[in-house]
Design brief:
heterodimer; A: 351 residues; alpha+beta; Rossmann fold; OB fold (Dihydrolipoamide Acetyltransferase, E2P); six-stranded mixed beta sheet; elongated; B: MetI-like fold; globular; disordered C terminus
Chain lengths: 351, 262
């Protein structure tokens, strides 16, 4: 069982801690996404796990076996991990067949065994017809599929992916997400996947780890990250939400401007914000009877998106909210209207 | 636009004529049938080529220059390539100092390098008695050319190509042999070509460091011109030019085009 455990992992570049005491456990067979803005330490974490750089503190262990600590580090070639790169990193002087076969050649397999296995894997990525081509003759999507086959064929304990889809165009990226997930479900390697794209993380991961300034902001399944962000940073990064500055009134209420909002729970101290998802706000011409958390607004902008309407509305104190509604909601720009902010969707978060 | 293009083309043509004309004159003069080195040549004969190939001193120098050129090329590739690899991939704090150190023989006037080496050889007692000093001098001036070419190739080589091999289980040495070296091969070959040419017609280093009885071809030509002025020197020059051209064509045929395939 190859679970991956990071304990207090730290890496400094000069005086900056790129990775600052990370604790993480990825169970065997799970796909874990490290998600965060550039410079948050996610790629450094991945490279530490791969063994390309050595930690200044903390430990990396796979299946209970220690690979790295501050004193000693196993080199990458002795880690039973395969890494996939943003730039695909296929070797341009070798055919696809030779690229995929290389890991097996290194392991000293016989020619026939190698041929059979490479053909099986090229079939799995549906590229058996192109085996004798060179990487330069392939599209980006094809190259990345070959890189996947090359990485999977050596049956690694851990699969590492460094922004594998960032160089592909939007349509292909979506297709490749499903391809990645399909291959993961088939081979079930413990996988660490670095991305800055929250949609990519949502659609592929079992476990999302949101990172910021070298630390973990929140780790959990995609649903939890989306519905219950632990901090204002996570809510902002996942996006699709309104973030409003707020002041604590009591354990149930916060004030946004001069509007009092009832929230599910309110942190006891510190600066607060309230996060309300754009599609969880009700927008109507008239005030809904007997509901709390309502406010009068003016419509400032309306964008028809086909499947939905995207409104920008302004509260009495001048702060603005984005609201996504059904396409049937029809309110003119400049009109007065009412928003309803359901209590369970108003998340008061520490800034 | 058209006028400018015409003028530009004319200028480039003029530069080429300026560079190539003396060579063309030497080539033509080598076929002179008279004793004096004349241009335009009188008659046509290969007697000066025969004279060159029959001259014991010239042949000795020619062989020495060939052996020296090949040896200096091999040595400078063996030193310059790892130096470039260290500079691009691993050098830390003293990175730029290291680069200047390797390139110094190219940045300083060559004659200064020669003088410094000469002093050094006498200090440590080897003087110019053996051909080893000459060899070391040639290697020193050849290394920067290999270093520059290989450095340029390495900058175009993404480290992730090497990391991919490491993560699949290749040791650093295996990664170098199977991934890095094939991919920087064009740079190594170009560097080697430069090194050979630089060594084969080097004058300044050879001038000071050549030993008694070990005179490279350019020095032999130089000495010969002091006493005589017959077309043997022109024939020798043509043979030198053909050597250099031959090396370029051979390398291109053997490895150049294939190395560029991707």
């Amino acid at each position: 069982m190859a679970d991956l455990v990071l304990g207090g992992l730290t890496k400094r570049f000069g005086t900056v801690a790129a990775v600052d005491g990370i604790d993480l456990k990825v169970e065997h067979g799970l796909l874990c996404c490290l998600l965060g803005p550039s410079g948050c330490g996610k790629t450094t974490t991945l490279r530490l796990v791969a063994g390309f750089i050595e930690p200044d503190g903390g430990t990396i262990a796979v299946g209970g076996k220690l690979l790295s600590d501050a004193r000693a580090s196993l080199p990458p070639e002795r880690r039973a991990m395969s890494m996939i790169f943003q730039s695909y990193a296929l070797w341009p002087h070798m055919t696809l067949f030779d690229n995929v076969a290389y890991g097996l050649v290194l392991r000293g397999l016989g020619r026939e065994a190698i041929r059979a296995k490479v053909e099986e894997f090229l079939k799995a990525i549906r590229m058996e017809a192109l085996a004798e081509r060179y990487p330069g003759e392939l599209s980006g999507g094809q190259q990345q599929r070959v890189a996947l086959a090359r990485a999977l064929i050596v049956e690694p304990e851990i699969l590492l992916l460094d922004e594998p889809l960032s160089n592909l165009d939007a349509n292909l990226r979506e297709e490749m997400r499903f391809e990645l997930r399909r291959l993961h479900d088939r081979y079930r390697y413990t996988t660490l996947y670095v991305t800055h794209d929250q949609a990519e993380a949502m659609s592929t991961a079992d476990l999302i780890v949101v990172m910021n300034h070298g630390r973990i902001e929140q780790a959990g399944p995609p649903e939890t990250i989306y519905n219950r962000p632990a901090s204002a940073f996570v809510a902002r990064f996942i996006g699709g939400t309104n973030i409003l500055k707020a002041r604590r009134l009591d354990a149930q209420h916060v004030a946004v401007g001069d509007l009092a909002l009832r929230c599910a729970s309110v942190p006891a101290t510190g600066d607060l914000v309230v996060s309300i998802r754009m599609h969880q706000i009700a927008l109507a011409a008239n005030r809904a009877e007997g509901t709390a958390n309502t406010a009068a607004v003016t419509i400032r902008r309306r964008v028809f998106l086909g499947a939905s309407n995207d409104y920008l509305v302004e509260l009495a104190d001048g702060s603005q909210l984005r609201v996504t509604t059904t396409p049937e909601t029809d309110l003119a720009v400049g009109a007065r209207a009412w928003v309803g902010l359901p209590e369970r969707h108003c998340l008061a978060l520490a800034e | 636009m058209k006028l400018w293009r015409g003028l530009f083309g004319g200028l480039i043509g003029a530069v080429y004529v300026f560079l190539m004309l003396p060579i063309a004159i030497v080539v033509m003069a080598s076929f002179n049938s008279t004793r004096a080195l004349r241009f335009p040549p009188e008659g046509f004969s290969l007697r000066w080529y025969v004279a060159f190939f029959e001259s014991e001193p010239f042949m000795e120098s020619f062989r020495l220059s060939l052996v020296l050129g090949v040896a200096a090329t091999v040595a400078s590739v063996l030193i310059g390539t790892p130096a470039a690899l260290y500079y691009v991939r691993f050098a830390g704090r003293w990175r730029e100092a290291f680069r200047l150190y390797v390139l110094a023989p190219l940045l300083l006037p060559e004659i200064l390098t020669a003088i410094a080496l000469l002093f050094f050889y006498y200090q440590i007692g080897i003087g110019t008695k053996s051909v080893a000093g000459l060899f070391i001098g040639h290697v020193v001036v050849c290394i920067p050319f290999v270093f520059l070419q290989v450095t340029a190739s390495l900058y175009n080589l993404s480290p992730s190509l090497e990391e991919a091999a490491r993560s699949l289980g290749a040791s650093p040495w295996m990664t170098f042999l199977r991934i890095t070296l094939p991919l920087i091969k064009p740079g190594v070959i170009n560097g080697a070509l430069f090194a050979f040419i630089i060594s084969f017609d080097n004058v300044s280093i050879s001038l000071l460091l050549k030993g008694i009885g070990s005179t490279p071809l350019p020095m032999q030509l130089f000495d010969y011109l002091r006493w005589g002025f017959d077309p043997t020197t022109a024939a020798a020059s043509v043979v030198s030019i053909l050597m250099t051209l031959g090396a370029v064509v051979l390398v291109d045929r053997l490895v150049g085009l294939r190395a560029m395939r991707f």
